[in-house]
Amino acid sequence: MADDDRRLVVALGGNAILRAKELSSYTAQFDNVRRTCVQIAELIAEGYRPVLSHGNGPQVGNLLIQNEAAARLVPSVPLDVCGAETQGQIGYMIQQALGNELRRLGRSQPVASVVTQVLVDADDPAFATPVKPVGPFLPREIAEQRMRERGETWSLVDTRGWRKLVPSPLPIGIVEVGAIRALVDTGVVVVACGGGGVPVLRRPDGHLQGVDAVVDKDLAAARLALDLGVSTLLILTDVAGVAVDFGKPSQRFLGQMTLTELESLLVREPFSAGSMGPKVRAAYRFVHDGGKRAIICALEDALAGVGGRAGTQVVADGSFQPSLLR
Q1: In the structure, what pLDDT confidence band is assigned to residue 58 with cuts at 50, 70 and 90?
Q2: DSSP class of 309
């Protein structure tokens, strides 16, 4: 296998840091990160050269709740800064856990995190229709007051109350891609684009400016992979792969798929916007825009996934004869 084929971007799902029904304690998060890094270290030991990305939803949510609770004591921190803070927090955990695991395997490879800004377009339609809920649940009267006074968008989510909605624009570029590439070229395992990165706009004068928005982490990972020119995007989650009729007696997991087959599937299969939907669309976008292969598989199947033995494998038309369902 060529050296370039060994480079890949690995998008770690939420279960890599916090598993379902667990308390969001620091101890629980670090324990999960350690287990995740065992899988990543196996990839590295087999000669793969991953760039890692990760989610940060619960961690940002906790910061926003702390903002609300301490608003009378300290100034609130804006959403873009919360994103940057959690990139550092989770990056630290991955750096330490993966570094320790690599040393256990007799490897001295450095691991470093890059607080990453992700460029978005001010004309993206997402800014006109905020849909991503963030932060604490609040009573109706507070939500209505903030809509009036701050121009924010709030929605009644469920019986717990109202939540603020922010835009989720598409990523169009990775600001620090040059620095990330330079680190990768010297053998560093890089952690980047955490939580989709910090969304920023480029002003007419060329300066960057943070924006109150959230970029989907899997789409950001796809953008990072494309900008780095790597051949493979590996999206790790808590299920074996992409399934049609998920949770029904007729459930079927999908194996190897061409881009055209995936495009047809996206038309008829209502993948959840909160779970598999963004992963499938990120896989589609990566291959459509020039990537060689996108894989969606379970965290514990990471090595088998890149070896083509597990998960859902998405490739360009004509790359190989797919076995669509298994």
Answers
A1: confident
A2: S
Query: Helix 217-228 crosses helix 276-288 at what angle (to 10 degrees)?
Result: 20
Q: Are strands 198-202 and 111-113 parallel, antiparallel or unpaired?
A: unpaired
**Are 312 and 252 in contact, with CB atoms under 8 Å apart?**
no
Residue with the two structure tokens 């859902």:
312
Residues belonging to the active site? 14-15, 132, 217, 279
Structure tokens at 245: 């009729």
Listed residue (298, 271, 311, 283) closest to 9, CA to CA: 283
* Dihedral (CA of 216, 293, 252, 32) sign: negative
pTM summary value: 0.91
Sequence spans of domains, the chain:
130-166
| CA–CA separation, 193 and 275 (whole Å) | 19
Distance separating alpha carbons of residues 223 and 229, to the nearest angstrom: 10
Q: Are 322 and 257 in contact (CB under 8 A)?
A: yes
Encoded amino acid at 111, one letter: V
Rounded Cα distance, 8 and 184, in Å: 11
CA proximity to 14, closest of 33, 34, 27: 33
- Provide Rg for the chain, Cα atoms: 20
Number of residues assigned to the chain: 326
Token couple for 36: 């995740």
Decide: 88 and 228 in contact? Cβ < 8 Å.
no
The CA-based diameter of the chain, rounded to the nearest angstrom, is: 62
pLDDT in the model for residue 108 = 87
Rounded to whole angstroms, the Cα distance separating 200 from 80 reads 8
| 167-192 pLDDT tens trace | 999 999 999 999 999 999 999 999 99
- Nearest to 303, CA basis, from 18, 40, 19, 14: 40
| Helix 276-288, helix 259-268: angle, nearest 10 | 150
Q: Which residue do the tokens 């008829």 mark?
A: 268
